[in-house]
Each structure stands twice: as structure tokens, then as C-alpha cells.
Amino acid sequence: MLGALYVRISIVTLVAVVSTSVANAQCSATRERRPWRLLSCTEQTTFMEALQSLKDAGVYDDFVMTHQWMNSDAHGVAEFLPWHRWFIHEFESALREYGNDPCITLPYWDWEQDAGDEFNAAVFQPQFFGSLTGRDDQTGACIWSTARGNCLRRSLDDRFAFWSLRRVLGMVVNFEQYTDNWDSTSNRMNGFRAALEGGPHANPHNFVGGTMISMAAPDDPLFYLHHANVDRIWAIWQDWMDHDQLHRDAYEVPIHYEGRWIDEPMSFPPTEVVDWDFRSDEIGDYPTPRDVLNMNDRIRVRYVEDQMARTLRYTPNSTWFESASTSEIWVNQCDEEDRRLTKERKLRFRRSHSLPSDEDVSLLQGASLRGRSDSVFQYVKDENQQLQQYEKIEPPTPSFSDDGQSFTTFISDLESCLKMNTFSRQDDRDAWGRLCEEMPLTATYAERMAAMAEDECDKNGNPFGATPQWIERMKMTNEIVAFECFHLPDRFET
Ligand SMILES: *[C@@H]1O[C@H](CO)[C@@H](O)[C@H](O)[C@H]1NC(C)=O
Ligand SMILES: [Cu+2]
């Protein structure tokens, strides 16, 4: 009896101690955001629970309404990046306030790692709503409802492949300014912000589809993980361009920002409209873009990341990034069993939902999924009448006219091209041999080298994945390899 009482008291005491320590928890001053795929299963579960708490408290829906409310003040304009930086920062604060972990941070979805294998992205695993459709794929039950009370919709559309790492980095290193030098009152169609917004930011929205392509996109929790990644890419660009070293007063238009409103408080709905107060205690108002340009000024966020910086062979500012060393590869902490289940689930999904009808097939043929004109996907029926997807590469036809003289010249040029094939590595020899046949014979040596680099890029998915020895042998600098690998977004003129 006494024993039982004692035990009971100590449990009560323990609970009291735990809740006090939760309330007084000292989180580190800087919020460290990590990739979803690297969280442990427990961390992923904690995050899901925090989302649910936010939803139950009605606060989650405030964020959806805020995003819809601010549509034209936050999209297609200068504020796009700083506005979303603050928006997700506040969402993270809300997760801390309403969830069980007062020090929780927003994970990010580094979709560039999933480029080319979109359906297998770790974010679609069972711990993250499990479903590629927004419904439980066993029971069909709705597992997350929108602010308007409908079931979350997703309709994955693989015509919108994610930007690969090399494409994203190509954008990062090639845009020198936040915007162009044009008239500062019009909306910008060029510069880093426009490229990021219209290019790699747009594709995951379009790929996930459904709710994610509406202005109610924050109804889909993937929105926050996606935008954390967009924010991280902006931060990488800022760091790469040395904007991290600047005092807040030194930020200027058009290099670091665009338009006239760098010192105007950004637009968020007042507390009469939504309950969440978007004003910053520290600033005493809604933040200005300048307030959030430096990640270690009014906000304190640090991205833990294992790819971009390593790939650029560049040590990022440790105030902004915790980066893997050049030799480290970080692995997923969630267990193998989950991964296996996820894979099976996805296979099921592909069988039941995703295989296109015969009609779709003709539409999909010719669509370039990787932004490369020579790479198309083809759907073919196998012996069981199941549609199977194949990637088909159409080699360019060698161009020569078929009169005898040109043909003789072609053969001798081809032979001399093949004679230059002195590479020691079999891969390189194969590539060169193929290029001799595929490229116009008028191609210069440099053009062939560039094509070799491109070939390497395609294989590795990562220009800097080419070893230093390879680059040395190719007599190339990193910059040239990078340039050849990247497909920059089209630049529009107003
Ligand atoms: C790193 O970032 C901090 C904060 O923006 C800045 O004060 C510092 O100068 C930067 N360090 C380097 C080496 O650029
Ligand atoms: Cu948005």
C-alpha cells in the first residue's frame, strides 16, 4: 500500500518536473534545420505530431489563410523570398508553441536529391502522411483536411521533374544579382529571385499537384518543407555571393534585393483577420526585407546540409550552414524496414494510379522530363500487357550528305577523330568514340571536350562529382565543367 502510494507520487512528481522543464526549455539561439530524409523516425513522428497539434489548435489554418490573403504581395515580386522566409519562420515558431518539442525546427525537403526519382522521394514515406495521393492508400480515408474542410489533394504529375543538383547549382553560381538593372518600379522577370521562383521552386508545386498548385498550397504540409528548401537555396546563393559578410546597412538594390521596398515592413494580415500575430517581438512590427536578408540578424537560422556546399567544393559560412566535409556522405537514420515498406507502397501506387492510359502515352511521348530534348520517356506494354516506362535516348543523326566525296571525307575525318581517342579510362574511351560518330565532324576539339563533360554530367548527375583527376585529364577548370553541365533557365525580357 505504502509502496504503491510512493510510486504514484513519484510519477506525479516526474510529470511535474518534465512539464516544467519543457516550459523552461532553453533552445539554442539558432534554429538548425535539417533535411527530412536525415531525421530519425522519432524526429519525423514528433514533427507529424506537432503539425497535428497546430491543426487541432486552429493555427495551422491561419497560415493557409495568410498565404491566400497575401497572394500578390508575396508572389512574382521582390518580396517572394523574404516574405516566405518570414512566413516559414513564423510557422516554425508556431510548431514550437503548440507541439510537444519546444525546440523543434522545420525540416527541409531537398528535392534536388530526388530529381529523376521523384516518386521515391523520402517525403512520401509512410511517416509523412504515407500517401502520395493525400489519402490512406489502404482504406482511402482522408488523412489530412484543408482549411476549408476538404480532403487534401495530391495528383503527382511527373512531367514536372525536380531540378537536379547541377541545375540548381548552375543557377546559384550564374546569377550575380537578386535582380537585373532595369527600371526599379516594374516587376522583375530576371535575376536570381525570378529564376528561383519560376524554375526550381515551381516544379515541386506542380509535381505534387492538387492542393499544392493552388494559393492554398500551405494546406499541404509539404509546402513548408519545400519552402524551407527554397529558402536554403537562397541562403546558399547569398553565401556564395558573400552577402553573408554584410552588415544589414550594406544591403542594396539591385544586387542584394530588388525594388524600392527593402525597408518597408512586409505585408501580413493583421490579427483581426488571423489569430497568429506575424509581428516580430524583437522588431516591434512586421519585418522588412532587410530584416531577414541576413540569416543571422533578426532571424537566426542555420541549415545543416550535406550536398550543395560539398558539391561546390566550398566551405560555407559556419554561422549559416553546418556542412558535411568533402568526404562525408550522410545517411538516412530512419530504419530499413520503413524504407522497404515505402518502396512497396510506391510500387502499389504506381500500379494503381500512376500508369498512364494509352491516350496519355501519346501525350507523354516527346515530353522531356529532364529538360533535355534528347531524353524522352516511352511507355511500352510488356508481355503481361502492363505498361512499363523506359527512358529512351535518341542519338542525334550524324550530319553528312551522301554524295561519295563527302562520305569519303566523313570516313577519314571520323578516323582521325577516333585516333585522338587516347583516354586511359574505358568510360572516357567509349564516350569519345560515340561522340566521334554523333557530333558533326566540324566540331572543334574544345566542343568535343565540352560534350565529354556533358556526358559525364549526365552520368553522374553532378559536375563536381567528376573526380579532380578527371577534370585534370580533361584540362578543365571546375568552372568550365560547371558551365557545360548546367542548363540555365530561359531568360525573359519584359
Ligand atoms: C559569416 O556570417 C556572419 C553573419 O552574417 C558574418 O558576420 C561573418 O562575417 C561571416 N563570416 C565570413 C567568414 O564570411
Ligand atoms: Cu507562396
What attributes characterize this protein structure?
single chain; mainly alpha; di-copper center containing domain from catechol oxidase; three-stranded parallel beta sheet; globular; binds 2-acetamido-2-deoxy-beta-D-glucopyranose; Tyrosinase_Cu-bd; oxidoreductase activity; Tyrosinase/Hemocyanin
The fraction of residues assigned to DSSP E strands is: 5-15%
Mean pLDDT, all residues: 70
Distance N terminus to C terminus? 83 Å
Could you tell me which ligands this complex binds, including any ions or cofactors? 2-acetamido-2-deoxy-beta-D-glucopyranose, copper (II) ion
* Strand order, largest beta sheet: 1-2-3
> What is the fold-level CATH name, i.e. the topology?
di-copper center containing domain from catechol oxidase
Structural class: mainly alpha
Domains (count): 1
Which percent bin holds the helix content? 40-55%
Profile the largest sheet: 3 strands, parallel
The top-level CATH class is Mainly Alpha
Topology as a string of helices (H) and strands (E): HEHHHHHHHHHEHEHHEEHHHHH
The CATH superfamily appears as Di-copper center containing domain from catechol oxidase
Radius of gyration over C-alpha positions, nearest whole angstrom: 26 Å
